[in-house]
Amino acid sequence: MRGLRPRSSVEELADGVRYTFPPRKSTFPTVFLTIWLVGWTAGEISTIWRMWNGESAGIHMKLWLVAWTIGGIGAMYQLLAFVAGKEIVTISPGTLSIQRDISGWERPRSYAVTEIRNLRVARQEEDFFWSSNRPGPFQNGTIAFNYKANTISFGAGLDPKEARLVIDDLARHGISSAAMT
């Protein structure tokens, strides 16, 4: 599809279409997480080294190490999402599926096309520090729709012009204009 960035792609399937979008690129969280993980690694190694060398490892230190490890794994996952993640949107007969893929294990979320309403370019707030936007790689997508009582969004790495192209293409591939009202 013309007009999409080189990192985005559209693949025609036998029974539908698959779009692959990059995550939102954000320099500050990527740099911050990288620096934070350097400090995290130093803290993790230091604590394990002290415990290994016989320093008293009371319950407080053990609980801290568990929490510190979980936090570090979460930070690594977010950093990987910013750097190597992708969003895969697949249209097949009667279904729209969204998969936010980082490690290859993420399961897609599927939505019945007949239940999709008000497919639109989502309003994006510009003020990073005061808006409700979160700096996550997939949060607050540029394309949104209503599904039952929820608002679903995707395409966080797309600008509004690209989002409009995708919405027009989605209509061409079976999400009827009736579903877009």
The profile of the biggest β sheet is: 5 strands, antiparallel
Number of helices, counting only DSSP H or I runs of 4 residues or more = 3
C-alpha geometry: elongated
What structural category arises from helix and sheet content?
alpha+beta
Average pLDDT level: 82
Beta-strand level of the residues, as a percent range? 15-25%
Number of structurally distinct domains: 2
Return Rg in Å.
Answer: 21 Å
Summarize the structure.
The chain has 181 residues and is α+β, with helices and mostly antiparallel strands. Helices cover 36% and strands 25% of the residues. The protein has helices spanning 27-52, 59-84, 160-172; strands spanning 9-13, 16-21, 86-92, 95-101, 109-112, 116-121, 143-147, 150-154.
Characterization of this structure:
The protein is α+β, with helices and mostly antiparallel strands and 181 residues long. The protein folds into 2 domains: 9-23 and 88-172; 28-82. The chain has helices at residues 27-52, 59-84, 160-172, and strands spanning 9-13, 16-21, 86-92, 95-101, 109-112, 116-121, 143-147, 150-154. The strands form 2 sheets. It has a 5-stranded antiparallel β-sheet with strand order 1-2-3-4-5, with no helix packed on it. Strands 6-7-8 form a 3-stranded antiparallel β-sheet, with helices on one face. Strand 1 (9-13) and strand 2 (16-21) form a beta hairpin. The longest helix has 26 residues, at 27-52. Mean pLDDT is 82; it is low at 177-181.
